[in-house]
Amino acid sequence: MGDPKYPRRVWRKPKRPFNYELKMEELKTVGTFGLKTKRELWKARTELSRLRKQARSLLALRQEVRQEKEPILLKSLSKIGLVEEDSTLDDVLNLQVIDLLSRRLQTVVLKKFGFKTPYQARQALVHGHIMIGDRIVNIPSYTVSVEEENNIRFSPDSSLENLLSKSEAVSEESSEQPFETEAEAATKPQSEEQTVETKAEAATEEPESAEKTSETKAEAATEEKVEKSSTEQPQE
To answer: pTM for this structure?
Structure first.
């Protein structure tokens, strides 16, 4: 059988993996494109460094050899939408990791069908809801070519298309309905609180008024008694 062939690693770790700024940048990129792990980001960086190395090697060649090999590289990159057809090697050297990640099937599906998050688009891909032409593709990191981009669609057995259309209709209806301003919403609970306070004040004022009336009656009764006693005394 011979010696087994071990697959060559297609990614390299960064030289300073514990750098704070690098870690924050990686986490932001992972969340923006819905990557599962940082290894997917490292794969894209390794592929980008390979393309740059190839472009630099072409720049170092003679003009005759360069004219033969340069169109091959540019044509292969223009097929997947990384560069334009009339671009040069300088455009290849100016490529960023975001350019490679934006050509992933996950990102293209997110932009085309309007999923809420990249992770929702990833779940739809993994569960077999997306087709390219006549075949189901469930690989989020699949690089989409320019020709295949127009052939991406939902599978016939998928119900996600109806769900997305319903959610869009509901969001449109909610946006059309008049909504209360922040000032109105802030004044409503205050008015309710004021009514409660007025009721409490009225309830407390009622026993106070009853006490005052009872006090006035008692004072009037005592005054009458004093007057009667003064009139009943015999005159000397």
So the answer is: 0.69
